[in-house]
Structure prediction request, 308 residues.
Amino acid sequence: MSGEEAWIDFCSGWISGGVSVLACQPIDTVLTRMQANAALPAAAAGADKVVVAGARPGALTANIFKGMVSNFGVASLWRGSSAMIGAVPVQNALLMTGYGAGKRWSESGNDAGSGGGGNVLMGVFVGGCTGGVLQSFVMSPVELVKVKQQVVGESVTAATTSVCRGVFSSNGAWRGLGATLLRDGMPHGVWFASYEYAKTELTAYRFSTNGDGKSSPEDDVAVPMLSGAFAAAVAWGVGYPFDLIKTRIQAGSTKGIWATAQEIVAESGGRPVQALYQGFSLKLFRAIPASAIGFLTYETAAKILTSK
Prediction:
């Protein structure tokens, strides 16, 4: 992969990350407070606790949303966005660089006659896993800042200072890193492989249904958006339990990954699926449009940058 190709992937990923954060941050704020649940202070930032244990997911979501708006104003739904806007573009840039590198590497092997479409999926899977692991070391402390803002109500300055002071402590800036690695490693490989599979199938279908065998401007928008939405649903189906565990740990739990998982399951009466996938529908409500917007922006930006 040339330096120019890597730079195009990096810039395209940066742009797509910033756009998706601005569009979907309010959903993330509500979801984070839901996931924190038992770790949420009884009086977060001087307001009454808005998470009620045992509440139905729909009622709980509405309760959190109303509590945030009434106590802190509409702007509070974008808590943590400053940290994420600064970091998510870097995260996306690393991920998209891994995706682009893996895809080009596998395609170069196919051109040499060493395989077929399965090699491309394996290439982007490996690229996604690699990018996912690398960006975990960027995102884990940044998400800790975000959680402190969203759950505890700390200012971005106070949260950032607190995290930076603990940069050399596993219970400081790196709190929740293990769960972040489990959430972002293999699931990102699944994310990219699912995207590539859906994109290939949808493109082939559209080519077969178009009389001239060419793609239309509508295809250039629909294919990456639908493929991105599909990929998000599949990837989060794999990685969501670790996202829940990560948030609980970063919100204040002093237990490890396994002990935190056991605690979450116990809170739901010993029902592991219901426990570890609580808030999953809300996560998809955020992740599907974010992934669709992100991949569309990436593909569009890459085409524009490539043409220059």
